[in-house]
Amino acid sequence: MRSLNLRYRGINRATDVLAFPLYSPGEIPHEGHYLPGDIVINPSQAASQAKEHGLTLGEEIRRLLIHGLLHLIGYDHEKGGHAERRMRAKEREMLERI
């Protein structure tokens, strides 16, 4: 995970989840089949974070999957401010629904 993060984001540390979109936000098809991209989850970091957050491993993986999916469709918490609040709210909404 560290090497993927370094190669694609220029950040030399492990991370919990990476998302690799197939489209830029303006290119997302509105008809037909849609494959948003790939999500890579770091299971060892997920296990560690699950303990920190008081979640099961399955719950943490679901949280990371939703986080990655939101990145694939254009959400970006790293912009801070409104963009971060919007993404966090959408994460909570989706987790409540599943």
Annotation keywords:
mainly alpha; 4 helices
Summary, kept brief:
With 98 residues, this protein is mainly alpha-helical. It contains 4 helices and 2 strands, in the order H-E-E-H-H-H.
Description:
It is a single chain. The chain has 98 residues and is mainly alpha-helical. It has one domain (2-97): Metalloproteases ("zincins"), catalytic domain (Collagenase (Catalytic Domain), 3-Layer(aba) Sandwich). It has helices at residues 2-9, 43-53, 57-72, 81-97, and strands spanning 17-21, 37-41. Helix 2 crosses helix 3 and helix 3 crosses helix 4 (81-97). It is globular, with a radius of gyration of 14 Å. The mean pLDDT is 92.
Number of strands: 2
Structural class: mainly alpha
The rough form would be described as globular
* CATH superfamily heading: Metalloproteases ("zincins"), catalytic domain
CATH class: Alpha Beta
Q: Tell me the Rg in angstroms.
A: 14 Å
Please, how many domains?
1
Helix segment tally = 4
Described by strand count, sense and barrel closure, the largest sheet is:
2 strands, antiparallel
What are the secondary-structure elements, in order, as H or E? HEEHHH
Helix content: 40-55%
